[in-house]
Amino acid sequence: MAKIMILNGSPRAPKSNSKRYAALFAKYCSIACTYFEISKSNHAALRSEMEKYSDVLFVFPLYADALPVGFLNFLKFLENNPPTRKPVVSILINCGFFEYNQNEIAVRMMRLFCRQNHYALGSVLMLGSGEAILDSPFQFLAAAKIKQLAASIVSRSYRVFHVTMPLTRKLFQLASTYYWVQYGKKFGVTKKQMQTMEIESAGEVRSDLGH
Amino acid sequence: MKLILSDRPIHVALPDDENIRYFNLSALKISNCVGCFGCWTKTPGRCVIRDDATKVYPVIAQSDEVLYVSHVKYGGYDSVMKTMLERAIPIQQAFIRIFKGETHHVQRAVALKQATIVAYGELTEEEKDIFTRLIARNAYNMSFASYNVLFVEESKIDETVEKIVRTWQKS
Q1: Which of B21, B74, B140 to probe by mutation at the A interface, max A CB count within 10 Å?
Q2: Per residue in A142-183, pLDDT tens?
Q3: CATH number, domain at B102?
Q4: Measured torsion, CA atoms of residues B35, B40, B42, B47, in degrees rounded to the nearest 10
Q5: Domain boundaries in chain A?
Q6: Does residue B37 come out as left (phi exceeding 0), alpha (psi in the -120 to 50 range) or beta?
Q7: Sign of dihedral through CA atoms A19, A167, A64, A114?
Q8: Cβ-nearest to B98 among A10, A169, A193
Q9: Is CATH 2.40.50.140 the right assignment for the domain spanning A4-164?
Q10: Based on the structure, what is the number of domains in chain B?
Q11: Disulfide: which of A10, A52, A177, B69 matches A18 by Cβ 3.0-4.6 Å?
Q12: Do A202 and B56 lie within an 8 Å CB cutoff?
């Protein structure tokens, strides 16, 4: 029987937007979904659990133009400790930038992982403006694509989807500035303080030449 | 400032020049970024995790020549280098700018860089292509004015680094 394992690969999984995306996916999916968060200490348990599922949906953010390192480490674990039964791998990736296509390198990395490790690749959803879209009037656009993503996995008619806010870049920039100013306010930090050009000093510690 | 950042030890006699810094990341204690956004919103420009990464990212910011040495996995930096690069986000602001027609983060006091990336591992042409495109994207987000990606065998890394450092001394 088909059932989907949702794996959150965000470094801040319990508080992440990826968790919110995963919840939307589970809400719109017509077959059973079970949600897990990847941590440093649960790779083996997740691998064992994975064998019970027909499909896996990896949900994660773009980090430094690629896969978050904690998630990368989980993929490397799977490579060295493959499940006996390999599910179809689908992907929901989000980046905070406006352009959904900034996710494309990470998706290519995932395709490569799947091919090298003999997993079938299912559907892909690339989200732009993924940090803020769920708290914007455009939440429904992300939700609609997640619904389509779920339907494509259930029907096994795999596709690539994408969505971002329907704004100009300039308007996106203004909206994101507002978002971050409000974020800083929660900690009593002003926009001017957040805009500091100063980076802490490296100190006087000399690096480990020759070691 | 010139920086050599490597995920393995480099066995090269480096010049005694305080403007050339070298970090062997494999010998440092660097935790994963936890995505708390503290360095953007609570203590701007300063990571809340006080480990060895805090010695490295200020030097990344100051350097106008960088030489990164990294194993490649699935067409991206392998874990050691990737961990450090993720921890370098205090050098950016949360705020967005439009740069070369795309949205990217505003940089703090970060020098424009000539970057050389020495990539190693048993790599297919596809992996090399993904990695080269990744570096092109990094250029936008990591202040690379120019970059050069060199794919080398692991046994040739020291020799390659030595040659690059020699060009730094001449310039």
Answers
A1: B74
A2: 999 999 999 999 999 999 999 999 999 999 999 999 999 999
A3: 3.40.50.360
A4: 60
A5: 4-164, 167-195
A6: left
A7: positive
A8: A169
A9: no
A10: 1
A11: A10
A12: yes
